[in-house]
Amino acid sequence: MESVDFVVVGSGIAGLTFALSAARSGRVVVITKKDDAESATNMAQGGIAAVVRGTDSFEKHVEDTLTAGVGLCRREAVEIAVRSGPDAVRRLVAWGAEFSKRKDPEGNEVLDLGQEGGHSARRIVHAADMTGKEIENSLLSAVGENPDIEVWEDHVAIDLALGVGSAGPVCVGVHVLDVERERVTAVAAPVTVLATGGCGKVYLYTTNPDIASGDGVAMAFRAGVPVRNMEFVQFHPTCLYHPEVRSFLISEAVRGEGAVLRSLSGERIMKGRHPREDLAPRDIVARAIDATMKATGDKHAYLDITAEDPERIRARFPNIAEKLAEVGIDFAIEPIPVVPAAHYLCGGIAVDLEGRTPLPGLYAIGETAHTGMHGANRLASNSLLEAVVFSDRAARSAVDEHAGLRGVVVAAGEVEWEGSDAGPVPEGVVIDFNWDIVRRLMWDYVGIVRSERRLELARTGISAIRAEVAGYFAGHPVSRDLLELRNISLVGELIIRSALLRNESRGLHYVEDYPERDDERFLRDTVIAGVPEP
Checking phi first, is residue 152 left (phi over 0); if not, alpha (psi -120 to 50) or beta? Predict the structure, then answer.
């Protein structure tokens, strides 16, 4: 057993921001599934939304966020994030991030701001089309130089370790599978932080990395922590459709620079569907593409930016240009085949504005947490902003909490692992089969457009899989594949249950049986109480 001051599960922008902020007050261990750079942050192309130019305003950014969230944003969370935006950018620069710049008319060097769907102004701070990679690398460099932060690669969190406090259960650390050594260990800490990112691997098609299996949400729920708004899963409108490439996102910034969506026959998909047309919020664009594909039988749509200057476009999006060139597409002179794909979880673990969960000792930050900022639909590039702002707030709160707990010794028995040993699972084909079934079931029945009947069928199917997985987990060695299947099946069930509780269509949740919004009954969060497991 390892004992530290703070244990962080996840090495994306949220987890690393927390680690750097908290390391001033104690020792931090960061648990990460594979190598430390594999995260959704590293794959983010667009940027971080922030008001850094005088022609923009906090009020406009707040209003754009609230509009995209369709009535369910927590305004206080939005205000905090938006008004903290300039400081968040400055903090990232201080940690080494280098963002794209240009010369203004007076010859001064200024940030080159992009525009994305749902934004009324150019406010996207970016590093060409590799913003996430730039941020992730700068944070990893800062972490690597900090002697008080240790990163454990190839470690998979299994479950939270719970102790008994004066007022009930408390989180005292986390059980971890060391994949390389095939052993289960534990990290004890007075402060445990879940920063595990999203759950895109619950779906068959996703822009997320392979590690995005909803682990944080699942672990928190099994520890009795409630989740909120799990029905709101954002589908990115434009993922590359190509047999040789998986999960390559075509940034929304491409539409911000003039790209339009077309059917295979060349018709403009967004024409007349929304006042902002191709710069409409993501939920509207994704549904429009989905509807067009279903109406025409087409397997994909086109994203067309060929009307813009080719050299400017290649220079603005060098990463996208290089990736497409690898499969024979020059997007400056020919359209890109695209399809929607699962992208971002707007719901998550219930937290307050400092990242605290109802379980003492446990915090959640980033995509795995529900601060209320995104409401029923996330505004483009608000996720990196939320991650930096609320991770720093959580760190400051946790440092205060840790000061109150300093000197408290976690008993070894409280974090002792009592489950199976690590090792390969017999009949692994069963695990692979259920992995595939969960993801296909979620894609076919709980996707962009839903119906009550399909949701009920999905609930029946996933309940059967959950029962089978529980039996495997109880009687077989612990492996990464089994742990992730256990988590995606639970998170899938939570998405389905939440969807069935919202009998209306709002934002990312569209149900054919209830196509209209119902503010009288559903202008509220969907909450499912956590169920502690033995």
Answer: beta
Q: What is the pTM of this model?
A: 0.91
Does residue 244 sit in the same domain as residue 369? no
Residue pair 468/434 in contact (Cβ under 8 Å)? The answer is yes
Q: How far apart are CA 33 and CA 195, in angstroms?
A: 12
To the nearest 10 degrees (0 to 180), the angle between helices 85-94 and 75-83 is 50
Task: Tell which of 413, 448, 464 closes a domain.
Answer: 413
Average pLDDT over residues 76-97: 96
CA dihedral 71, 73, 74, 80 (to 10 degrees): -130
Contacts for 175 with CB less than 8 Å, ≥ 6 apart: 157, 158, 159, 160, 161, 184, 185, 186, 415, 417, 419
Cα separation, 74 vs 386, in Å, equals 13
DSSP letters spanning 37-93: T-SHHHH--S-EE---STTS-HHHHHHHHHHHTTT-S-HHHHHHHHHTHHHHHHHHH
The model's pLDDT over 22-52, given as tens digits with 9 standing for 90+, comes to: 999 999 999 999 765 454 554 555 689 999 9
Residues with catalytic function: 282
Dist. CA 82–CA 390, nearest whole Å: 11
**pLDDT (tens digit, 9 = 90+) per residue, 114-165?**
888 789 999 999 998 788 889 989 999 999 999 999 999 999 999 999 988 7
Helices (H), 183-251: 215-222
Strands 301-304 and 449-450: unpaired
CB 27 within 8 A of CB 5: yes
User: Residue 471's domain spans which residues?
Assistant: 428-517
What integer pLDDT is reported at residue 1 of this predicted model?
Answer: 78
167 three-class SS: coil
CB-CB contact of 254 with 124 (8 Å): no
DSSP letters, 268-334, are BSSTTTSTTGGGS-HHHHHHHHHHHHHHH--S-EEEE-TTS-HHHHHHH-HHHHHHHHHTT--TTTS
Query: Measured in whole angstroms, how far is the alpha carbon of residue 53 from the centre of its chain?
Result: 27
Question: How confident is the model over 210-235, as a mean pLDDT?
Answer: 96
Angle at 351 between CA 350 and CA 352, to 5 degrees: 140
Q: What is the Cα gyration radius of the chain?
A: 22
Instruction: State whether 321 and 367 are in the same domain.
Output: no
Cβ atoms of 124 and 256 closer than 8 Å: yes
Span between the terminal Cα atoms of the chain, in Å: 21
Q: Are residues 130 and 51 in the same domain?
A: yes
Which residues fall within 8 angstroms of residue 108, CB to CB, at 6 or more apart? none
In a domain, 215, yes or no: no
By the 10 Å C-beta count (0-12 exposed, 13-18 middle, 19+ buried), 524 is classed as: exposed
Strand partners, 380: none
Query: How many domains, in total, are found in the chain?
Result: 3
Residue 256 belongs to domain with CATH number: 3.90.700.10
CA distance 253 to 114: 7
Q: What are phi and psi of 76, to 5 degrees?
A: -60, -40
Pick from 200, 153, 199: nearest CA to 177: 153
Q: Which two tokens stand for residue 465?
A: 């899989």
Percent of the chain with pLDDT over 70: 93
